[in-house]
């Protein structure tokens, strides 16, 4: 049976993101690939645009499906033994609140790092 690999696209220039990726690298079971957004070249539209990748966490499943935002984070952590701690974030009662918190945090992170007017994406 072939094990499909997921690819997590992350902002390698973000210290907080880099710390989480470092932890994921240590804990993952070997079937999660890490791709620094800044090292990617968009091959004929195969990736979302650079800004979209920076604004929200993106994960490309082994089946070719894009998972974005909080669900991408939960899926990435599902590759570790701690994944069960993250699953409740997708439960119907919790998800709307957790997703709003994630979006607000991601928007503020993006604004501070990339949309300041003097920074370049």
TrEMBL record:
Extract the Pfam families matched here. DCC1-like (PF04134)
Name listed for the protein in its UniProt record: DUF393 domain-containing protein
GO MF annotations, alphabetized = protein-disulfide reductase activity
| Protein species of origin | Marinobacter orientalis
Q: Which InterPro entries match?
A: DCC1-like, DCC1_Trx
């Amino acid at each position: 049976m072939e094990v499909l690999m997921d690819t997590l696209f992350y902002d390698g220039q973000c210290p907080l993101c880099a710390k989480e990726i470092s932890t994921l690298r240590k804990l993952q079971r070997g079937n999660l690939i890490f791709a620094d957004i800044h090292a990617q070249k968009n091959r004929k539209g195969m990736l979302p645009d650079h800004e979209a990748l920076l604004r929200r966490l993106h994960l490309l499943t082994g089946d070719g499906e894009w998972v974005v935002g909080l669900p991408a984070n939960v899926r990435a952590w599902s590759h570790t033994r701690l994944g069960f701690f993250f699953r409740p974030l997708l439960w119907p009662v919790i998800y709307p609140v957790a997703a709003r918190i994630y979006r607000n945090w991601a928007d503020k992170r993006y604004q501070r790092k990339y949309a300041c007017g003097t920074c370049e994406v």
